[in-house]
Design goal:
This protein has about 450 residues and is α+β, with helices and mostly antiparallel strands. The protein has 4 domains: about 120 residues, Methyltransferase, Cobalt-precorrin-4 Transmethylase, Domain 2; about 40 residues, no CATH class; about 160 residues, Heat Shock Protein 90; about 70 residues, Arc Repressor Mutant, subunit A, CATH 1.10.10.10. The protein is built from 15 helices and 19 strands. About 35% of the residues are buried. About 5% of the residues have low confidence.
Length: about 450
């Protein structure tokens, strides 16, 4: 595999990394940089991937303007038994990006041309600057400045990250004047954003069966509440025949989760219109404000090219494990649903996933609530071994695990996020006497495992 307009190879971490990243930020498709592969794609590997990954994040954070936080991912991969670093770079919404050291000049601005990062002509710099997005949630001042963030801190603590006194600046929740921006407003404990999940009888909106309102709180909490509610409404259709019992959920849970999170992260909040979730007898519709980001075509959208509309939200959602890698959401949805499920306009993007058509010619169809969550074998092990209130160390000992990071990432956090276990001290996740116990949902799930 050779280098392309979207792929760059580096045998080792070099001093020109920022130049390559700037070129991809300014390129309408973004790109990927591999460290540990030579120019022909042969595997060389890196000797200390953890250290190099930290260096990459620090250099990109401090050496590029405008800020590119939330516009790149740094992940570890293994190629032929060797450690390789993969840097995924999205196309930025605030072009032109440039090297902080040289400013917005030909020496500081680069653009991807073929397989190289080339200096950007002055004319292109001026044209891009004149079109630069100025109504982003990072630039809009919050309508309130008396914001608190206790909910956000709790979610970060649950993810093993402690927010210090400078968290608002570190998470870029302040505008250029040092005031809270609209991203801060959305993530604060209180706001005026109302998010609705509606269920209708039939295929139209004339017969409303159920209306649920979330929001007016941290967008992270609202997202989790909507995910939980839709998971409950995503019932299982059971068909009992003479040969077997067939269970089918109305909508694929992985694709549905990706669609919900995409609607929250990529919604155009500058229009003060929240995402909307509607369930009909034959489909579920998920609508977010804002059409395709400027410069992104439909084909590029479906191929997973990422142009985050709200990079501040993207960064927080990735920190908390709600989003995995840049550009991974739409390709995951397309593994189950076709492109025809997406519709675009200048002001909205809508995803409509059809409910399955059941063949009732044989057997009895039943619709029952889904009580079995989609979890991993690691979570199953944790649930089976949690018989009483236990501390983190006690659970690790029962599971025979010594790696705390592995336990947190693959066992504890997924079990918490799926609602199968909960803290005994809810208000303080990092309390020294913290223990964990099964929820009612977890107890029901354990019965299915037993």
């Amino acid at each position: 595999m050779t280098e392309t307009n979207r792929i760059e190879y580096k045998q080792e971490l070099t001093g020109d990394l920022e130049k390559e990243v700037v070129a991809f930020l300014n390129y309408h498709e973004g790109g990927i940089i591999y460290i540990g592969l030579d120019k022909k794609g042969n595997v060389a590997g890196v000797s200390d991937s953890d250290s190099d990954m930290l260096k990459v994040k620090d250099r990109l954070k401090n050496n590029i303007l405008p800020s590119c936080m939330g516009l790149f991912d740094v992940v570890h991969e293994e190629h032929e038994g060797n450690d390789v670093i993969k840097i995924i770079v999205a196309s930025g919404p605030e072009k032109p990006y440039y090297l902080k050291k040289y400013g917005m000049s030909e020496k500081g601005c680069y653009i991807r041309t073929g397989t190289a990062a080339e200096p950007m002509p002055v004319k292109m710099i001026e044209e891009l600057f004149s079109k630069r997005t100025r109504n982003s949630i990072g630039k809009i001042t919050s309508p309130r400045q008396d914001l608190t963030f206790e909910q956000l801190k709790i979610y970060y603590e649950a993810a093993g990250i402690t927010l210090n006194k400078q968290f608002a600046r570190n998470l870029e929740l302040l505008n250029e004047d040092g005031k809270y921006n609209y991203a801060a407003y959305l993530l604060a404990d209180r706001n005026n954003l109302s998010i609705k999940v509606a269920k209708y009888n039939g295929m139209g909106r004339s017969d409303l069966a159920e209306s649920n309102e979330y929001g007016q709180e941290s967008l992270v909490k609202a997202t989790k509440q909507v995910l939980d509610k839709i998971d409950v409404l995503n019932t299982t259709i059971t068909k009992i025949t003479s040969r077997e019992r067939e269970n089918t959920r109305l909508w694929h849970p992985v694709a549905l989760r990706e669609a919900v999170i995409n609607a929250f992260v990529h919604n155009d909040y500058s229009k003060e219109v929240p995402p909307k979730f509607e369930i009909f007898s034959d489909r579920i519709e998920i609508t977010s404000a804002g059409g395709l980001p400027e410069g992104l075509s439909r084909d590029e959208f479906f191929e997973g090219f990422s142009v985050p509309r709200n990079r501040e939200l993207m960064r927080v959602f990735r920190d908390l494990g709600l989003v995995e890698q840049l550009g991974s959401g739409v390709p995951r949805i397309l593994e189950t649903y076709s492109r025809d499920c997406f519709s675009f306009s200048d002001n909205f993007l809508r995803m409509a996933f059809p409910a399955p058509e059941m063949d009732y010619s044989e057997g009895t169809p039943q619709v029952t609530p889904q009580v079995t969550p989609q979890v991993t074998p690691q979570v199953d092990q944790l649930i089976l071994n949690l018989e009483m209130e236990l501390s983190r160390d006690e659970i690790q000992e029962k599971l025979g695990l010594s790696d705390r990071k592995n336990f947190r990432k693959n066992y504890l956090n997924p079990a918490l996020e799926s609602g199968l276990i909960e803290y005994t001290i809810q208000e303080s996740p990092n309390h020294p006497n913290q223990k964990y116990r099964l929820t009612e949902k977890g107890k029901d799930y354990k019965k299915t495992l037993d």
